[in-house]
Design brief:
The complex is a heterodimer of chains A (269) and B (264). Chain A has helices at 6-9, 16-36, 42-46, 49-82, 88-100, 103-114, 121-128, 136-160, 165-172, 177-206, 209-214, 225-235, 237-268. Chain A is mainly alpha-helical and 269 residues long. In chain B, helix 3 packs antiparallel against helix 10 and helix 4 runs parallel beside helix 5 (101-109). Classes of the chains: A mainly alpha (269), B alpha/beta (264). The A-B interface holds A 21, 24-25, 28, 111-112, 115-117, 133-134, 212, 215-219, 222, 230-231, 233-235, 237 and B 1, 3, 79, 81-82, 85, 133, 148, 150, 153-156, 175-180, 188, 191-194.
Chain lengths: 269, 264
């Protein structure tokens, strides 16, 4: 191990003040949640039908959104990283749009595309009687829309950074392109895939704006945990705080999971 | 916890700056009319008002500011219950106009406001899309299977009103969504996603030709009273009271009745 080069890279003392302020600013809201949480009523709140429905729905929809993202997002990442087509830069920009778009705007955009009067939705409705708004699949659509970029961007970056000599070697030994991808490429970018999946799941789980705009809010059907937290604030704020702690716990678990994958990536390279 | 103090100081400084800038215009005003005994309210206030008041209060605010130079009124519109929570959590509000007495009561019992007065009465109406998928022409249609009904969620005044409307008419309506406030209900109808939404008469009127209203007969309808009160913690009680008085005045009432509110 190399010793840290303190004299030249260590920040001078005045940096401690704003840095410390930033840390306090980020940490205090979390402390607030813990201080004000209705601890004696915690179990009662968390096992109420509203909470259990929201928790179940959140886990189901976030998992479904992650699955959809894996099935169609990985191929998109592969195309973006490894194929040369006209307008690839534009496509990549398009993929990142949901990352920076306010989720509410995403929800409105989804309504205009897949709503009952939407440019695609009206045909879904007339041909197959499928309407997405106000349904659980609608929640999955909203969550997939906002979360997919995380997986695509993560995997595309990993593919671009990959040393292609291993794949070339496999190809010269007679492996087909799919076999090379499956047997050589995928194992090499596995840590990135894992990190991307965890990020996608976390983003899907926390999705609020697009969901409430596109899918509405109904207990057991479209009311996910973040929606239950927001609605809870109108009724009993204590319920909202208790449910917030559940989401916080999930976030912490996600962070721990990510740390492990990052550590493994660090060890591999 | 020490962080909170600078934040408050900063907010106060901003508010003072705002007051200062508006105050610079008013002395010139009062200088011309030195004989005037009553001091004109100046400065700025923030009015927390129910979502359904958006149109009429925006107009009222503009008229008030035009009639009282040197004043500035900022509005924060939202579900009454959300606003009530914010106020009891010490949000910087000066006036609260609620869409239900019950929500106002939670604020007054918490000691955050006193002396609330009813300033308007609203009734419900069914909003339907301009190009209906499943036509809704009466209250009874809402209970039919396949009709997509959107209401406000149960803790919001318009949701409470919708629930009592259904109970009063012995209707079992299964809503496809319980929206956060009345404007969200309306937007689902404007976009044609739902077949019917329970909103206020004033919302249908404000939405003009983007929705089609289906009137509910008076004997089947429910009414909601709108109370208004100055907030006790207000830093500009004079202006807060002046705005409340204006809403209750003949000028204020004519704006409200033009928006479709019933007289008390």
């Amino acid at each position: 191990m190399m010793r840290r080069d303190r004299p030249t890279t260590a920040p001078p003392w005045p940096v401690w003040l704003p840095g410390g302020l930033a840390l306090l600013f980020l940490g205090l809201p979390i402390v607030g949640l813990f201080v004000r949480a209705p601890w004696p009523r915690m179990w009662e709140v968390l096992t109420s039908p509203t909470s259990l429905d929201a928790l179940r729905l959140s886990l189901v929809t976030a998992s479904a959104a992650t699955l959809v993202t894996i099935v169609i997002g990985i191929p998109l990442a592969w195309l973006l990283a490894r194929s040369d087509f006209r307008g690839r830069g534009f496509v990549r920009a398009l993929v990142t749009v949901p990352l920076v778009l306010p989720p509410v705007v995403g929800g409105i955009a989804l309504l205009l595309a897949f709503g009952r009067r939407g440019i695609v939705g009206q045909y879904l409705d007339s041909c197959c009687g499928v309407t997405l708004p106000f349904t659980t699949p609608g929640v999955v659509v909203a969550e997939t829309f906002v979360a997919m970029p995380f997986l695509v961007i993560t995997i595309e970056g990993a593919l671009r950074g990959l040393d292609t000599r291993f794949e070339d070697a496999a190809a010269t030994l007679g492996a087909g392109r799919l076999t090379v991808f499956r047997r050589v490429t995928l194992p090499l970018i596995l840590p990135s895939i894992a990190a991307g999946i965890v990020l996608t799941f976390a983003r899907a789980l926390g999705e609020f704006g697009a969901t409430i705009t596109f899918a509405g809010n109904l207990q057991g059907v479209t009311q996910t945990l973040p929606l239950a937290v927001y609605i809870g604030l109108e009724g009993d704020p204590n319920d909202a705080i208790a449910l917030s702690l559940v989401l916080l716990a999930v976030s912490v678990i996600v962070l721990v999971a990510l740390r492990d994958t990052w550590l493994r990536t660090g060890a591999a390279s | 916890m020490h962080l909170i103090r600078p934040a408050i100081l900063l907010t106060t400084a901003l508010v003072l700056a705002a007051c200062g800038s508006s105050a610079t215009t008013s002395p010139a005003e009062s200088a011309t009319g030195t004989t005037e005994v009553g001091s004109r309210p100046t400065g700025s206030i923030t009015v927390f008002a129910a979502s359904s008041l958006k149109g009429s209060f925006t107009t009222l605010g503009a008229q008030f500011m035009a009639a009282n130079p040197g004043t500035s009124i900022t509005f924060s519109f939202g579900a009454s219950s959300t606003l009530a929570t914010q106020i009891t959590q010490k949000a910087p509000a000066d006036v609260f106009a609620s869409a239900s007495q019950k929500t106002m009561d939670t604020v007054t019992t918490a000691g955050a406001a006193t002396g609330d007065k009813v300033f308007a009465v609203n009734t419900l109406e069914i909003a339907t899309p301009t190009k209906p998928t499943t036509p809704v022409t009466s209250l009874a249609d809402l209970a039919k299977p396949g009709v997509k009904v959107v209401v406000c969620q149960k803790d919001v005044p318009c949701g409470v009103a919708a629930a009592s409307l259904f109970t009063k008419n012995k209707l079992t309506v299964t809503a496809v969504s319980e929206e956060v406030d009345v404007k969200s209900v309306l937007s689902k109808i404007v976009l044609g996603e739902a077949d019917a939404g329970i909103v206020y008469v004033t919302d249908v009127k404000a939405a003009k030709d983007t929705v089609v209203g289906v009137e509910i007969p008076a004997d089947q309808n429910v009414t909601t009273k709108y109370p208004i009160a100055p907030i006790t913690a207000s830093t500009n009680t004079a202006l807060a009271q002046a705005f409340v008085d204006y809403v209750l005045s003949a000028d204020g009432q004519s704006v409200l009745s033009a928006a479709g509110f019933a007289s008390q």
